[in-house]
Amino acid sequence: MPGSASSIHRPEGLIERLRSAAADGGDAKLKVLRELKNQIIGNRTKKLSYIKLGAVPFVVSILSSASSTSDSVIVQCAATIGSFACGVDSGVKAVLDAGAFPHLVNLLSHSNEKVVDAGARALKMIYQSKMAPKYDFFQEKNMKFLLSLLDKNNENLIGLGASIIIHSCETNDEQKMLGDAGILKRLINLLEGTTSQRDASLESFATIIKENPQVISEFVGPENGRTWGTLIELTKDRYPRTRLLACMCLILIKNAVPSYLQSVGIRTKLILILLELIDDSGQVGDEALFTLSSFISDEEGLQKLAFEANTIRKLCDHMQKELLQPKRLEGMLMILANLCSNLECCRSVLLQSPKLQTIKIITDALSHTTVEVCVAACICLKNISRSVKYLSAGHFMTEAIIVPLIQLLYDTSTSVQVAALHTISNLVVDFTMHKFIFVQNGGVKHLVELSKSMDSRVRLSAVRALRNLMFLVDSRCKEGIFLELRALSLTSLVSDPSACVQEQALGLICNLINGPVDSIDYVFTEDALLLNAVGRQLWSASKPEVLIQGMYVMCNVASGKEFQREAVMRQILPEASNNDTRSIMVTMLQSDVAQLRTAAVWTIVNLTVPTGAGALARVVKLRNVGIVSQLKNMANDPCMDVKLRVRTALGQTMVFGDFST
Amino acid sequence: MPVRMVESPAPSTSSGANPGQTSLQPCSLLSVGQTFSGTQNVSSPQKEEAWRVNVRIQGCDLNHGYVCGTMEALNVPMADTPVVTFWEGEIVDTKNYTFFTNKWKATPEVDIDHWTKFSSFSPLLSQVEVDGGKSLDLSNYQYLFMRWKEQYFVNVGADCGLTIAGFYYVCFSCVDGSINGYYYDPNSSPFQKLELKTTNEGRSGFSFSSYELQ
Lengths: 661, 214
Known about the structure:
By secondary structure, chain A is an all-alpha fold. Helices cover 70% and strands 0% of the residues of chain A. The longest helix of chain A has 17 residues, at 240-256.
């Protein structure tokens, strides 16, 4: 008949025995340590439970009296500590708080190899956590110690050395120091060692060369034939992890020094290897996705190669076949996003697939519970919607896409909000007159709210989205947007502390007053609040992008009625009371930025249209402040667009006779 | 004091390491949102006919020699409503595209037959006959040459009885934004002429709008 479990099998009982063992010693130590280790190995719940019950300090206490205990007890202590530290940050903290670290380091110089191995393994576990103390490479003795770890022909010691590098090497100076101290050389030698040595070496090698062209030029790259050749060879290794790490190293080299890895053959091979590794259902598959994504992220040529390697089809198959883990889904979305960042052919494949299955998966991912997946889905959709061709076909302005995106504007994460705003910015350009779908679903209200955010990134993205929404919008929607936005809010955005926000706000006003001529009235509401704000900005701003947009506002207003042209004249000419008789227009016309000169000349073209009743008076005023003579100086402007508009403007001013004499 | 304008020179032939690789200069009249209107002559030997046409620029990327927009034909006999198509254009910049089409059933002879219809093409003819214009520097030329190819119907089905099989040879004047074009489709009447001018929606001047894709 089974009896009730005795107290010694419960955690509390084991802790009690551990306490006694720590105090009394003897054979009991070994037994209880073994029992504890067997219970916690691979069992996160048990680990956390024993940590809470205070088991770690007892184990460390036994280890601290190592000189008086047998080697097998030491090995059990180190293994138990390593197990507590493995994969659980609170375990690492408990181990460090209990003072295990120096005792474990001492074990590395023990005469018994098994003790050394156990110590090295435990330290490696600690160094795999972010909680581990930073290793100071700038201390000579530390560097010597690290070299000694890599010099021993012991896989655990090499593994520990690699973990220290991966954990603690963060800055360019540290990378350089490790290179100069011979660590990189040693790691390169280890690339020809056992599988575990190779993988450890490749990973720490990647850490040392990451984003450091100097180290790469000095120690690796194609001119260091042996290293380069070894890395290429390792991309064909039989072990998937080794292949992945070798690809990672080559890609890091290429990312830091773009002139390396130019061979189309090797580039294609890397893409094919990574695509094959994606089939690995574990960590290798996940990492392969992000490695491929980073490989193709900045280069259209690589995106084209990846497209030709059938990447989209492969990813779509995965996405349609199985329910993906968040990490995997995020990686796939990021690859699709990068493929669609430049290439129309990639967008076409997704948008022309039967029943738009992949687009539906991407849209569904907008409502995923994981932040990273939501952001990746937004970026993917944003890049797909860079296609004017499909924007024009109205592929995106549907409730199925717009509604979840508007929902994301409520998200508590700023990164999600910004990603959603970027995507919305593209989608609302919509040329199919379906912008009302966005308006009807409450999108404008949220954009206006976010345009008042304290975070300038959010504010900028929201105003940009409003600007794009206002582009070629019909009069009814335009009125709705303006009512929601109000002249006063728009005025504050024009003088926002961020110049980028100012630029977008001015672009928004340009679009607001473009189209039917009565749209210009918007800048004259509330005593021309908006027009005055734009005028002030033209006199005070210095960033050319802001001035260009501000100038185009004036240009658009000057394309309207006589009184509107006169209002523009008042904004651009100096006030009589002002000692400065120089018009801002002369400054703009003399700008080094051709686009600003173009905008300024267009404004003058509109102001001098000869049919207007006040045209002659305006020409006289423009001449009096030196604008006409400045135009004459620009008759041979290096920018053809400017030169042609100057020709038109001068032609118009001369309709009334030449004032030059 | 009046100054003398330096007239734009005829395009030169580039020499050196990068023949014909200069990018075209932007022209504000060919920017997004700009609209044009005019006619397309679709007369046949049996009947004089012209359709009113409106064009709007929706995208322009000079680096890639790309331009796109919509074209609206207003009085198409077999359609109840105006017919809107989306078109994509190749800008002849000698970097991305030359004067030779090399597709859409257009041989170099057909190309030259059409380009020579534009008087502004005359100074270029001899070089184009040699290499399609690959070695020409068009960066300061006041005319842009393009091919516009309609891609799909925006507001009617593909079964509307109309065809978009052909494409337009287009010459755009950077001076005043006027557009001349000739439709080419081996199965349609030859040299259907397209003539467009900038429009300003009741304004007495030019107005601009823009968007910024992320």
